Amino acid sequence: MDLQFESFMDAPHKRVEKRPKRVPVLIKYSIGRSSFTKVPDSDDLAIIEKISQLRLPSNLPTQELPDCQMTRVGRMRTTNTRCIHHMYLPRAAHTLSYLWGKANEIIDVRLRNAIKYWLDSQFTNMSILNRYRPEVSFPYNPLSGVFYVPSLISEADPFLAYANKIKRLTAAFSSSHAQDGMCFTSCGSATKLLVPDQSIDYIFTDPPFGENIYYADLNILAESWHSVSTDVEPEAIVDRVRQKGVPEYQHLMRDCFSEYYRVLKPGRWMTVVFSNSRASVWNAIQVALQQVGFVVAEVTALDKVQGSFQQVVSPNAVKQDLVISAYKPNGGLEDRLNRRGANADSAWDFVQTHLSQLPVVKVTTGFPQELLNIVERDPRRIYDRMASWFIRHGTMVPISTPEFLEELPVRFRQADGMVFLPEQLIEYEKARARIPQVAQAELFVSDERSAIDWLTNFLLKRPSTRSEIHPEYIPQIGAAKRKGEIIPELDHLLEDNFLQYDGSGDVPSQIHSYLSTNHKDLRGLAKNHPALVAKAKDRWYVPDPNKAQDLEKKREKSLLKEFEAYKAFTGRKIKESRLEVLRAGFRSAWGSKDYGTIISVANKLPEETLQEDEKLLLWYDQALTRTEAGA
Question: What number does CATH give the domain 188-328?
Fold first, then answer.
């Protein structure tokens, strides 16, 4: 249904404008404690018409709204809502202007500011953004996080609104037990905190999530009454209207996290709340954290019970926020790195320190309880954290992935695919004895690395032939696959990462254990028994650490050979690529300080390929930093 418009003289701008024709249809009133509704009669309409003919108050903000995301959405354009005064019906405009004028006449600055604080709390509720919702008793219902002009507007009673608000403010401030000088609040930019170095014990931060909420845009209404405006340039959001993308957002967040890192004491923690469904925004936050020196120890879901409007109605919105727990390494670790340099001892020193910071036991809620797999204790995740730490310090990673994975079980303890310090393993095993069931993490095949992880998980439980693996594996590759990502064929994945028993020699212990457990007739047989050999032949299995290192080296060589093709590519963009090839190539180039290769290949990739992988993004950003610094 099309909107019906009417013309009117916009006096402040001396021009004829069009606005939607608005007709009063229902009045809610009260007598004593009883509320009633009525259809407006001729007297009501006459009063409304008389008010509409009054000249606009001189102190009513009348500036035009800027071109921004909030003026392009929520029926702002379709209703021709172009100026601040267009957002108020005549009665609200006169009432608010009168009260605001009286507040400005107060001489006592502290009292004047307190009254203004009280008054500007209702500027949005008194506007045409307030929706009529017949089944909701609460009278103030503007849609949060957006400028949205509803079809049915509820013109709220300002006197009732302010009477109720002053009661709540009085109750809130009278119950505060804070004493003068015991609590501090400051307003300013997180990129420049007026706080001494290493003076804060703990930081909780709930930063902007990409482009979820346009904070500066939403401030326009209240700021117009105060005759101030936000400088939007350094606002840490993704803003399509102002051409601020994920890279700009990441750099702004890095500046904020850098200040957090400066003021936080060594060895202390920061909690970062995050909510965004885009992988690129998630990676921007992760990379920004690591670039300034924080180490991520845990990522968990935050159940707020009540979701936001977007979380409730949008199929693409994340239903729960995430909580990132990160710590600032203690001064001893940094000092030892500076003293020793980037060598293997420094790498293992980091792992020792990092493991001590990770949670030891996590269990599910409800009954029966299950032990949860702690992702940050996965060997490859630990290697990634260690590598990121050295990259952040501008040094080469002193130990390769195969060497790391081979040495890790020698230096530390492992259980259920997780790595522990000796004393932590004792605690974990006590919990394991009490709660024997371990919840299995669900694996989705989205790229080559996750395909290898899925096959590893499958073959650890069930060494199988290719014909047995194929029907289980193929359905895993589907909607989760990344756009532009090449996942090698199953045969190539098996040959590059696993071993196949060809029937010669003893049956490998991995296969022997599986067969003897699941086949009664094969129990108690020697490893070279013909019946066992026949059943084991052609089965793929996960190699032991020594042989796995040889496979990893062979695979790394193959990946680097393929990376040469990306380096030589002369077209505009590499539309399809293997993520593992890019990671191996960037890792090798970083180790040889060939930052130009990283930047050159990165510029050939689609933006989403780079932005949606945390490792590539970190190498690329650090390569840019090192190049700009002339390293």
Answer: 3.40.50.150
